[in-house]
Amino acid sequence: MASHKIKIRRLAASLCSGVWRGDAVRDRVTRALHGGPPDPARLTARLLLRFDAHQPPTAAEMEAMLAGDAEVRAALDRSDDPDLPAILLDPPVMHPPADRRISLPLPRIETWRDLRQWLGVFDGELAWFADREGRQADVVEPRLHHYRYRWLAKPAGGWRLIEQPKTRLKAIQRQILRGVLDRVPPHPAAHGFRRGHSCRSHAAVHTGRAVVLRMDLQHFFTSVPVARIGAMFRRLGYPAGVAHLLQSLCTHCLSPPLAAAPDGALNWEQRQRLRAKHLPQGAPTSPALANLCAWRLDCRLDGLARRFGLDYSRYADDLAFSGPHGLVANVDFIEGMVGAIALEEGFRVNHRKTHLATRSQCQRLTGIVVNARPNLDRRAFDRLRATLHNCARYGPAGQNRDGVADFRAHLAGRLAYARWLNPDKARRLERLWRQIDWPSDGD
Question: CA torsion, points 159, 274, 58, 1, in degrees to nearest 10?
């Protein structure tokens, strides 16, 4: 005879499949329990009261609810029928997004076969790229791995690991990005990695304010809880199996022998984060997923800012608050609240990078000065002007002191950035640019 735990698990699996609607749920309860007891109508009412009326629970949530229901426990304990509860095999369906006020043009994907056809891959490829057997963490052959690794030194010290998906997986992730993630808007306070927004729009929110508070999230991508990624896909209406596959295609666990970290680059905590499933920094889907999974963080920080009459925005892992001079008196409390909220949402604030600047100081966000208007930093502007002046006076050949491969394109990019931030101020630089005698391609 099946144990009580097995019966609960069998009943939960049967009730979670199919359409999550009152009449459909009641029909599944009736069929699974052979008409009762417990009474199907009463159990259905409790299920719909406990869970979202439009979004089915996970199997674990359903098991926990059924295990704590006195009527279900009593009915299963009294029954000697080995076929109770019955195993139902209703096909999974895609549900509408939880927020029915928003119509998202998402592709309809209800089974792994639908996902395979939508991505244009074979059965074995889908299982291989999703790493369903969890082998990637133990792979030691680079040719069998899905990613290439590159270590970059941070300007402020330390190292950053860039995990670049190989060609086939990158194409799959780009399909998920364009077909699903780009169609879901993140929180309005998020300015990074989204169309129509940039570091300039992030800085413009805080331009001309009396006080600007800048904070930083530590290990932003690897801090995103992986379970939240799967939950996000489920909130978009995808069945649990499809959501888990999409989550697996967008996350990665590191094989330490292949990463070849520089000495002292990672502490124990960072190594554990990379060895577990995480958002790889370098995958096309990671920025959009990080934005969507930080929705609750943005909501709570935006609410905190409004409570104190402040403005809030986030550019990737950079948090910014600005407001009147009263922010100076409340900065310690606000910094503590931001740190506590971030911890509750799975993130961590790097308090050593917290910086408060008043109007009498240089207020800088993502490298942009915001005292009066988004502007280039004075030292950066002076260095660029001096370089252009020397190129015009002495020729560009002797000014490439850093050995840049294409010095002309390098300077043109810096000039375009200055023009993008402040066209009026950049006109002086453009006059110097026009005076430079660049050598022809044949020289």
Answer: -170
CA–CA gap between residue 129 and residue 367 (Å, rounded): 38
Q: What is the pLDDT of residues 126-182, one digit of tens each?
A: 989 998 777 887 878 888 889 988 888 887 777 888 999 999 999 999 999 999 999
Kindly report the pTM of this predicted structure.
Answer: 0.84
**Would you state the structure tokens that stand for residue 268, as one six-digit string?**
């124990």
**Six-digit token string for 354:** 């917290």
Tokens of 26: 């009641």
Residues 345, 304: contact at Cβ < 8 Å? Answer: no
State the Cα–Cα distance between residues 91 and 111, nearest whole angstrom. Answer: 8
User: Lowest mean pLDDT: which of 42-51, 100-109, 226-235, 256-265?
Assistant: 256-265
Q: Residue 1's pLDDT band (boundaries 50, 70, 90)?
A: very low
Give residue for tokens 């943005």: 298
Determine the Cα angle at 239 with ends 126 and 147, to 5°: 30
Distance between CA atoms of residues 4 and 73, nearest Å: 8
> Which residues, 6+ apart, have CB-to-CB distance to 173 below 8 Å?
165, 249, 250, 283, 284, 285
Of 60-74, 78-92, 162-176, 328-342, the least confident: 78-92
DSSP 198-243: -HHHHHHTTTT-SEEEEEEBSSHHHHS-HHHHHHHHHHTT--HHHH
Q: Which helix (H) or strand (E) holds 117?
A: helix 112-119
Peptide bond into 287 cis (omega under 30): no
Tokens of 328: 């100076």
Closest Cα to residue 104, out of 186, 185, 190, 176? 185
Q: Are 191 and 331 in contact (CB under 8 A)?
A: no
Angle at 153 between CA 150 and CA 156, to 5 degrees: 150
Element housing 167 (H / E): helix 167-179
Q: What are the DSSP E strand ranges found in 293-335?
A: 311-315, 318-323
- What integer pLDDT is reported at residue 442 of this predicted model? 45
pLDDT at residue 441, rounded to an integer: 58
